[in-house]
Automatic annotation (TrEMBL):
Keywords: Lipoprotein, Signal
UniProt-listed InterPro entries: LPS_assembly_LptE
GO cellular component annotations of the record: outer membrane
Top-rank lineage group of the source organism: Bacteria
Protein's recorded name: LPS-assembly lipoprotein
Gene3D superfamilies: Lipoprotein like domain (3.30.160.150)
Signal peptide from the UniProt entry: 1-24
One BP term from GO: Gram-negative-bacterium-type cell outer membrane assembly
Amino acid sequence: MWSSKRTIRTALLGCTLATASAVAGCGFQPMYARSNNGDALKTAMAAVDVGIIEDRQGQMLRNALERRFEQGAGNTVQKRYRLTVKMTEVKTESGFRKDATSTRESVTLATTSKLESGGKVVWSRQHSAMTGYNITADHFTVEMAYRNARERTIEQLSDQISEAVAVFLKQNPSLGTAPAGSAP
């Protein structure tokens, strides 16, 4: 019994070490890790100006995106990029009782995002996120559940968009060297 556990531990340790050395050898580097060029990604992220997004959920998404983009570098960095986002919301009923009343709804938010640099679109993506909530007899409870679901969905979208922009900026560091006078 003891030798069996020891063999398993040794095998797991060997697999872990082999995986770690394989990942280290392929040039893997965490996206937000400090590198020789300092905090270039944080500075590039802070250089993104998030445009106005329509409706209340658009305002919430814009605020969430701005928090993520300015994290670490603050708002003192000159804006070199402009992110425009268009968003749509769809509510879908899903669970039904015998009397055909709904017991569950889902909120799906879909976005089309474009990143511009020097007046040219350099990146464009579509993202979507969905969250569900239960429908009860209490109208106030349903309204609060809907608001909570919408907020969770907006946080998911802001994570998706900011991570995708970060990957793009990390892979294209030469875009960050635009002339100082260029507008977003």
